[in-house]
Amino acid sequence: MRRMSSSIVQGHFIRPTDHETPKTIGFIQCVGSRSEKRGNRYCSNICCMNTIKDSVLLKDHYPDIDIKVFYMDIRAFGKAFEDLFRRSKEAGVKYIRGLPGEVVEDPKTKNLIISVENTTTGEVEQHELDMLVLSVGVLPRQDGATIQKLLTLSRTADGFFMESHPKLKPVDAPTKGVFFAGCAEFPKDVKDSVTQAGAASARAEIILNADRIKVEAITSMVDKDMCTACEICYRACPYKCIEVDREKKMPAEIIEAACAGCGTCGAECPFGAVTMRHFTDDQIISQIEAILEEDPEEKTVVFACNWCSYQGADFAGISRLQYPPNQRIIRTMCSGRVDEEFVLYAFKLGAPIVLVSGCHFADCHYIDANRWTQKRVEKLWDKLEKMGIRPERLQLEWISAAEGQKFAKVMRELEEMRKKVTKEEIEFTKKALKDLKFKKEKRLAKLTADRAKAEKAAV
Amino acid sequence: MAEEATFKCLRCGHEFKMPFDPKGPMVERACPKCLSNSVRRMKEEKK
Fold first, then answer.
1. Cβ A371–B26 below 8 Å, yes or no?
2. What is the pLDDT of residues A286-305, one digit of tens each?
3. Mutate to test the interface with B, among A410, A418, A420, A421 (most CBs of B within 10 A)
4. Does A391 contact B at CB distance below 8 Å?
5. A298 close contact with B: CB closer than 8 A
6. pTM of this prediction?
7. A125: buried, middle or exposed (CB in 10 Å: 19+, 13-18, 0-12)?
8. Which of A8, A124, A146, A347 has the most neighbouring CB atoms within 10 Å?
9. Which residues of A touch B7 (CB under 8 A)?
10. Cα B39 to Cα A322, A340, A442, distances in angstroms
11. Sites in chain B below the pLDDT cut of 70
12. Which superfamily does A4-136 belong to?
């Protein structure tokens, strides 16, 4: 078993052990790929076509060579790929459906004997080969974690860099000014890599040719008097665009040019010191109050993120999908903005059901801000249960912009749940939350008390 | 190695087990029965 490139010497294909041209070659596909138990779960995308191309080249050079390809399934999806696959079969390449379970070397001939279950015939076969080529899966770079940290990027569970959006921004990184091309993002062939590189350079040119760069208008802001420099906002920020020093008691400062405006820092700040332009606490609280001003027991409060869930609702609407009209949507840029006090306040005002919805994990427009949403909702479920409020009344859902049907289905299900929430339950919740104070109020009260104390001491 | 934990769907009430690694990256959860994402991990009672 050898690397194929090391077997090509002066234009001739040889077996490295004895420098003879092999008469029988086997290719094993999906080595370390598409396996839940061993190696990688993903398909490496390029191996099938690479093997087919190699087999055609070998047959062109050595028409008598016997080539066997052992595979799970051949993925020849690109332009002219199917034709090449057909050419390879017409040239005499044998495709055997089944992955070998054992490879043994004959000590005399140095040939390899492989055992494989041919899943087409259902029989276990043995094949003697002069040479075996493994189609090993493509792996992400090992230093990916370092680059991720340096450039504040996001990676998939497989270790490849995650694009800003799989459909709308396929070459952009979540960090402005960083673009992907080639296998950094996912295994791809030369053609796709060149296409992506072209798109990436065009995207970069937009920034380079601009006289002025526009920054996000919706950014976070810090009230320095309220800030205790606890660094929680820094930990929550997916872009690490907050400067704060706990030891020096230096209050948080937002680097506005780098802030993308998810608002997770505002939701996580325990002192109400951070808020977001255009999506301030007061604005969102006013919306909750307006929604629940009349007949609150008939309403379901839905927090929907701007990019996915809100668009999903829009899609449900333009698709004329039917769902009950009791939902009232409050739009936030990201579900990470949904502060726990917004949810509790809605319950305090008599909301029977509250839904927090955002993008699917892979689609999050703010790197990983919606992971904070999930964490927060999980904490809230515990909190509600401790207060004697059914956690079921707080729902969480990931709805993409294309999932209008899912949005409508969720709304129908929530309406059924809403009908089951009794008046007594709502009254109990109101009582349980009657002493709810906003963190900002609490912090202000503390600051006022501290100031009064200091003044008294000075006198 | 991820251990298994018990989860409860807060939409349909279905209880199920799935791999859970408290130190690993957060994963999107869905109820295998109704596909809802309102899936809560049930903490085991301390003995």
1. yes
2. 999 999 999 999 999 999 99
3. A410
4. yes
5. no
6. 0.71
7. middle
8. A347
9. none
10. 26, 18, 32
11. 1-2, 45-47
12. FAD/NAD(P)-binding domain (3.50.50.60)
